[in-house]
Amino acid sequence: MSSTPEDLLPSARIRLAALELFGSQGFDRTTVRQIAALAGVSPGLVIHHFGSKHDLRLACDAYACQLFDDERVFLKDSGPMPSLESWVHDHPDLQPVMTYLVQCLRGGGEMADRAYQLLCSVSEDLLTEAESQGLVRLPADREAAIALLATWSAGLQILSDLFARRLGGRHLTDPEVMRRYAVAATELLSNGVLSPSYTETLRRVIEPSDDQESRS
């Protein structure tokens, strides 16, 4: 939970506790009593604020969406070199939210579909905004590009702790890990990893020529 949970309203403490427990042990294994104990409230207060465990999960989904909306505004307003460390510092609840989304993706079914669609939606919004500002160029097949980038992001989240340890940290949200991640991602996306000649060779293999299309 937040480093200062006593500063949060009971409903916010309940939601953050639910995010942590749903993320660490899954929705089915988490009870209202466990959430109440972690939040420092009574089980009755959990039901009073959210109605049921299912409705509390929906509130967690909505909160995750809101956090990503904050990220979208941050990236839009922060200029060409946003301070990731500053944003992470201002959002201590980021790690529980990401852990929650990872658990949703791992669980499969409706929850995984909802989490993945959220990632796709956020990716599309961010890329559309960046494209309108002339910051990125998307391939002709926008839908495939957006889905691919969202899938890469999901894979990174699932392996985030392993990735962070590889870079000498504990979590993806560690400032130094995020800095190295941002630099490497920027260089890869800006400069690519394939040489121009090899890219052209692959394009000829992947995209049939006019002669090949006419023969088919």
From TrEMBL:
Domain (HTH tetR-type) ranges = 8-68
Ranges of the DNA-binding region feature: 31-50
Read off the SUPFAM superfamilies from this record. Homeodomain-like
Cite the GO molecular-function annotations of the record.
Answer: DNA-binding transcription factor activity; transcription cis-regulatory region binding
- Top-rank taxon: Bacteria
What's one Pfam family here?
TetR_C_25
InterPro entries from the UniProt entry: Homeodomain-like_sf (IPR009057), HTH-type_TetR-like_transc_reg (IPR050109), HTH_TetR (IPR001647), TetR_C_25 (IPR041484)
Which controlled-vocabulary keywords does the entry list? Answer: DNA-binding
Provide the protein name: Transcriptional regulator BetI
